[in-house]
Amino acid sequence: MVSKSLKYAYFPGCVAQGACRELYQSTGALAEALGIELVELKKASCCGSGTFKEDSQLLEDAVNARNIALAEQLNLPLLTHCSTCQGVIGHVDERLKALKTEDPAYIDRIDTLLSEQHCSPYRGTTEVKHLLWALVGDYGLEALRDRVRRPLSELKCAAFYGCYLLRKQSTLPYDDPFDPRSMENLFEAVGATPVIYRGRTQCCGWPLSSYATEQSFQMAGTHIQEAIAAGADCLVTPCPLCHLNLDSRQPEVAQQIGQPLNLPVLHLPQLVALALGLEPEQLGLDRHVVSTRSLLQKLAF
Predict the structure, then answer these.
(1) Cα–Cα distance measured from residue 97 to residue 117, given in angstroms and rounded to the nearest whole number
(2) Rounded-to-10 torsion of CA 78, 82, 86, 89
(3) How far apart are alpha carbons 231 and 226 in whole angstroms?
(4) 142 vs 17, 54, 125, 134, 148, CA distance in Å?
(5) Does domain 7-129 have CATH number 1.20.1050.140?
(6) Three-class SS state of 263
(7) Phi/psi zone of residue 83: left (φ > 0), alpha (ψ -120 to 50 degrees), beta?
(8) Residue 218: how many CB atoms within 10 A of its CB?
(9) Fewer Cβ in 10 A, N or C end of the chain?
(10) Domain boundaries, given as residue ranges, for the chain
């Protein structure tokens, strides 16, 4: 079992508190089941999803330095459950830690902006960590395996990592950015069978969806078809933006590519929590656009 209690400054992000409320719900339920304490950063702001820097790099750095400083005030690591938030905030943290030595005057500009918002300065004393890495690295796969009450042995799961999680930061603690295995290892720990397919490390198409919808849907459709062809019962993603394109828009994607799809897409904490014995209604599994009923039937619900 886990040798120490785990506590994080929890950055829920925007999408999990809106369009993917089930992610917020299932993250809280999973943390409670595992005895992980989440201190939600109620005053945190949107990370910008990589768009702030299109107007100003200083804007992206300052906004996310503030988010990180809120966690530093608590002397806790900042926990995300969104690949995009992880990529953006983690990248800013890497940049600013380097700039504290290379360009301290720039850090002074950041700290002045934070001071104007009545926030403590950025110290670079914490780390930014996705829930996936907290489960794999901090809690541990062996400890997680010991907590499984409902092995997911009937499920074949295809990971969809999200490109921001894999390649936005210069270093990854538990993965190769081009051949990651942390999600597949996690699937095996909860009894599921990992499915390997080409699109699992690629972009879901969400960043294109507002101005190149057809291309975005083609990308999503290709990934879903490849996962189905590989025998997957579901996709599992650690990114709510990927979830929006792969689940919420899957009927439109199917219409665009002219092929039936109907592949359920789970949030990572939903899958793990099911294996721990939590009930579907605790995890918001009725909120998905593509029904999760086929998965639940395999698990004898």
Answers:
(1) 21
(2) -70
(3) 9
(4) 31, 43, 29, 13, 10
(5) yes
(6) coil
(7) alpha
(8) 16
(9) N
(10) 7-129, 143-299
Please tell me the predicted confidence (pLDDT) of residue 2. Answer: 59
Instruction: Count CA atoms closer than 13 A to 82's CA, side-chain side.
Output: 27
pLDDT above 80: residue 6: yes
227 pLDDT above the threshold of 80 = yes
Q: How far apart are CA 66 and CA 293, in angstroms?
A: 41
pLDDT tens digits for 130-148? 999 999 999 999 999 999 9
CATH architecture of residue range(s) 143-299: 3-Layer(aba) Sandwich (3.40)
Phi, psi of 163 (to 5 degrees): -65, -30
Q: Of 124, 117, 140, give the one whose Cα is nearest residue 92.
A: 124
Task: List the Cα angle 181/185/190 in 5-degree steps.
Answer: 150
What are 7's strand-pairing partners? 37
Reported as a single tens digit per residue, the pLDDT across 234-278 is 999 999 999 999 999 999 999 999 999 999 999 999 999 999 999
Question: What confidence score (pLDDT) does residue 207 get?
Answer: 83
Contacts of 136 (CB under 8 A, 6+ apart): 174, 182, 185, 186
